[in-house]
Amino acid sequence: MQGRVLVVEDDRSVRETASLLLERAGLRVTAVDDGRRALDEAAAHRFDLILLDLMLPSVDGFEVCRTIRRNSQVPIVILTARSDTADVVAGLELGADDYLTKPFQPAELLARIRAALRRPTADGSATHLRIQDLDIDAAGFRVTHAGRPVDLTATEFRLLLELARSAERVVSREDLLERVWGYDYLGDSRLVDMAIKRLRDKLGDDARDPRYITTVRGAGYRLGL
User: What's the CATH architecture for 128-223?
Assistant: First the structure.
């Protein structure tokens, strides 16, 4: 792997373990132990991914995630000892791309980071798609809605692109986890559901009366009529 990662974790043992694992995998790591320093580093430097603990001194991980998402689409993986579903969902709703609970297995941490660092690439499929008034430029990594640009994270873009390439067909959560997040058994369907929710919000789509993304109960999601 290549890239630069910001590790934000106040537990010294976890911070050092995660940093060492990522450095051995070929990544450049900056590690900090509180939310304020995390925001300072994110403002001053370009990172390819942020590994973010939720329970932090000075500024908690939720606020760090919220603040970073105002100006950056950098992939964020939340790392937390809390098993409370509400915390995980809250982090994903704020724009995190994935989560991992502590204690973690080294192989799983690396798998999450590797998947989150991936970017869409041309694969022989159509590189420009139009669905109603959505224009999706896969090669240029751009989306416009009724002529106006839509600011999507990398994960949200990949999700919309996969749905568009299967337009008017239902795509299961399992297939989306594999295609978008690069997971099979590691994945959690909440990742899909929260990313769909964020996509709908950014497109002005109403889940109760959808114009773009339809939930097909027990099956998955469909883009288009």
Answer: Orthogonal Bundle (1.10)
Cα(41)–Cα(120) distance, integer angstroms: 26
| Contact call for residues 162 and 176 (beta carbons, < 8 A) | yes
Q: How many residues does the chain have?
A: 225
| Helix H or strand E encompassing 23 | helix 12-24
Tens of pLDDT, residues 162-185:
999 888 899 999 999 988 887 765
**CATH code of the domain occupying 4-117:** 3.40.50.2300
Closest by CA position to 3, among listed 195, 105, 125, 154? 154
SS (H, E, C) 129-148: EEECCEEEECCCCEEEECCE
Domain map (residue ranges) of the chain: 4-117, 128-223
Structure pTM?
A: 0.79
Rounded to whole angstroms, the Cα distance separating 47 from 25 reads: 16
- E-only strand ranges, the chain: 4-8, 28-32, 49-53, 76-80, 98-101, 128-131, 134-137, 142-145, 148-149, 213-216, 220-223
Look at phi and psi of residue 30 and say left if phi exceeds 0, alpha if psi is from -120 to 50, else beta: beta
